[in-house]
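User: Sequence in, structure out. Go.
Assistant: Echoing your sequence, followed by the structure tokens.
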Amino acid sequence: MELTLVSSSFCGACARTRAVLAEAARFLPDATVTEIDVAQDPDAAEKLGIGFTPTVIIRDSVGAEVFRATGVPTIPQVLTAAVKALPD
């Protein structure tokens, strides 16, 4: 499972989202957290169709997107969404 944060350096909410994902990952030992900064990698952000930061994308083990949301999620919201990425 991959938790992706699409962020920007001028985004205060991105720092809060980074902390939420780090805390949620403590409960998801097989999860990988990656971050894409739109200023450093605008092509990746465009390819993902990012319109706002922060955006959180959760992918399952084969890379299929199972969840996407903008704004600062709560830890329970991330964990609930992560369940969709677990194998059947």
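User: And one key feature?
Assistant: The longest strand covers residues 2-7.
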